[in-house]
UniProtKB/TrEMBL annotation:
GO molecular function, one term: diphthine methylesterase activity
Domain of life: Eukaryota
Reaction(s) this enzyme catalyzes, per UniProt: diphthine methyl ester-[translation elongation factor 2] + H2O = diphthine-[translation elongation factor 2] + methanol + H(+)
Species assigned in the record: Macrostomum lignano
WD repeat start-end pairs: 71-106
SMART domains cross-referenced by the UniProt entry: WD40
Enzyme Commission numbers on file: 3.1.1.97
UniProt-recorded name of the protein: methylated diphthine methylhydrolase
GO biological process: protein histidyl modification to diphthamide
Cellular component aspect of the GO annotation: cytoplasm
Length: 201
């Protein structure tokens, strides 16, 4: 488990079996401003990724806390990082600069794909089929994106009303009896609203 803090620090936590509380295994100053996201890599036990309000996405070597192996600049704070569920070398970042970027760890000079969603990217969530993404785009509602290595990112569907506040959270909630439909839950901030809607695959 990983945690990010408003101080700019990130921490990796362990929860040993038969113990009630988690213990911090390592902690380090990752960003000059608030750290918005931190996660250990699902593909490498020695890697972690973080993003902060200093406009940086950073890759870390967990064998040496505080050793940044790569720092990738964005145009605004980095708020979200998700690895591809089945392709070990791909991950996505979301930012206040309103773009979703796809990165390839084998060539990190620039993103391999990018898509503007018209609002700060606060949440990204893969579908079970690994070809669709939910995106909470803050002041521009919720999106369903498609991704393939060949065509990149594409906007498939948008959902806004009755949300009237910041698009904050989104998740897939299982499926309907029809195999081509998927239930989606979205929530917005100041209006305290949770909505359920369906997406057709």
């Amino acid at each position: 488990v990983a945690a990010s803090y408003s101080t700019g620090h990130c921490a990796l936590l362990e929860h040993p079996e038969h113990q009630e509380a988690s213990a911090t295994s390592s902690s380090w100053l990752a960003h000059d401003l608030e750290a918005w996201v931190c996660q250990p890599s699902r593909w490498s036990s020695q890697a972690a990724l973080s993003g902060g309000d200093d406009c940086r996405l950073k890759l870390w070597d967990r064998r040496s806390a505080g050793a940044c192996s790569r720092s990738l600049r964005h145009d605004a704070g980095v708020t979200m990082i998700v690895e591809h569920p089945t392709v070990p070398y791909l991950f996505l970042s979301g930012s206040y600069d309103e773009s979703v970027r796809v990165w390839d760890t084998r060539a990190l000079g620039r993103p391999v794909h990018s898509l503007s969603v018209g609002g700060g990217v606060w949440r990204l969530k893969w579908s079970a089929c690994c070809q669709r993404l939910l995106c909470a785009a803050m002041y521009n509602g919720f999106k369903v994106l498609a991704f393939s290595s060949a065509t990149g990112l594409q906007l498939l569907e948008e959902f806004n009303s009755p949300h009237s506040s910041i698009a904050y959270g989104a998740d897939w909630v299982g499926s309907f009896s029809e195999s081509d439909r998927q239930l989606v839950a979205t929530c917005s901030f100041y209006d305290h609203l949770l909505c359920l809607w369906s997406h057709s695959f």
